[in-house]
Amino acid sequence: MCGIVALFSKKLYREDLNFAKTALRTIAHRGPDNRSLINYNNRCILGHNRLSIIDLNKNSNQPMENKNFSLVYNGMLYNYIELKKELQRRNYLFKTNSDTEVILNSYMEWGVSSFKKFRGMFSIVIYDLKKHKIIFSRDHLGIKPLYYKIVKKKIFICSEIKPLTEIDNIKYNDKAIYNYLKHDFYETQENTFFKNIFQVMPGYAYIYKLNSKFKKEKYWSLYETIKNNKNYFSLKKTKLILKSHFKNISEMYIRSDVKSGLLLSSGIDSNVLKKILETKYKNLNYFTFGFKNSNNDEIKKIKLHKKKRQNHHTQRYDLKKTLHNLNFIQKVQEMPFGGFNVVFLTLLMKIAKKKGNKVMFIADGADELFGGYKKYSKCNINQKDYYLRSIDGTKSEKLYIKNNFEKKFKHKISIKYPSKNNLINQRYFDFVYNKLPRNFRFSDRYSMINSIELRYPFLDYKLVEDSFRINPKHLIKNDNYKKIITDIFNIKQKKQHLNSPQIDWFYNIKFKKFLSSKLKNSAIFSKYLDKKKTMKQIEEYYNSKSKNSFHIWKILNLHLFLELYK
Q1: Using one digit for the tens of pLDDT, what is the confidence trace for 66-75?
Q2: With contact defined as beta carbons under 8 Å apart, do 92 and 105 qualify?
Q3: CA distances (Å), origin 396, targets 119, 138, 488
Q4: Phi, psi angles (nearest 5°) of residue 365
Q5: Parallel, antiparallel, or unpaired for β 120-128 and 133-138?
Q6: Domains (ranges, CATH) in the chain?
């Protein structure tokens, strides 16, 4: 994991070099082990903060050059050893044992097609010194972030948004804010919450030439993958293929030259991942958060073998500590985020860092892969209010958007789905538009602020492809969610969603006072929400004892975002 900064134009100046240096300092947390910057004839500047995970030698620092190409890269290529052997058979010589050099030589051999060969998470910037063009790309699913802004034919690229907000005056992307308030969407596709700051689309390579012709080349599409699936696997074949993928995870995903840990809960997913990793990992560390004075405390539910308890690190949180950290977390996240769990995970990662871990594993993605949400069986993708449905199927309350703002941005969400099957389309929606894209941003920030590489073993893109060839009836049966996984691992417990005490805390008098003080003179009422109706809605929420608090969180979170960037 690292931090990338790149600038490209016909002519770069001293202020551009100063911008690149400042930007690298701003995202220094992403890579504290080395900082390097190269100016290529005042046409391209590449900067890199390195978090050393594979081949800790300084020869693997970046930018990395080979002949007419220079590269900066953020991520982890899990199949780098296999690709390296393939390239060696093609007479490529290697000076390092890093995955970075494999990426560089792969591009030299296969061009943009090389990105499809990569099994991992990545954001990459390559400068072609001979053809005077810059190529930048994100992994298949968009696990690793990459943002860009174009000003007067000059392109600025960065791993985070903060440096790009310093280029000129900040302008909000009101369409993104509308979709957040109206449809519970966060940034989608190329959009961010900032006007003229874009994110690179997953599965794409962008090519920018000196004559300013901008080309976007798709190298992978989940939509096309699903569309081209003609037949489901048999149940027997499904189990064999999944077992093969899990074996691959235990071999490829553990590759690292540093200490590693697992985010562990009492749920099915993290315990399945624990079993997979422990087939090869003998000294894995475990990290769990819980809550003070709560019946929903995860820590009490986890059962570990006596020998492994010494490697289990825990932390309990309360409302006071959570509120104390909200402004800091908003700054780390840069844009609206998903709730208190992001706070807990940021602080838990800080403990993991103190314990010397530079790599952490997370079981995210299993619910989307194998049908783990109640909404998958309770809801239909064609429901008018589907986008307001939470993972448990409950509906988030609509907010009172100001009439002028509503009229300006009111539009029908139009998403093209690849299948006639409801479960497949719901899962596709969560992979491409909803659950995972936003979670990738949340988790990238809460891990990288602590200089930790976070790995998603369940989200190998080959496993994702194969998961859409599983017959939906093998995923959910008689309210048994993720049935295929519970069968393979002989798990008897049923899927259960354990909420944080966020709902209970929202009714706490301390939170009520906090919310009231924040909204008293909030900028959200100047343009976006009707103040009188919103305050009445909040009052009704407290009188009704509702179990869905997301609309309250959206109001507060948008305020925190606007307050940070005012």
Answers
A1: 989 999 999 9
A2: yes
A3: 36, 32, 35
A4: 105, -20
A5: antiparallel
A6: 2-161+197-220 (3.60.20.10), 232-380+450-488 (3.40.50.620), 502-564 (no CATH)
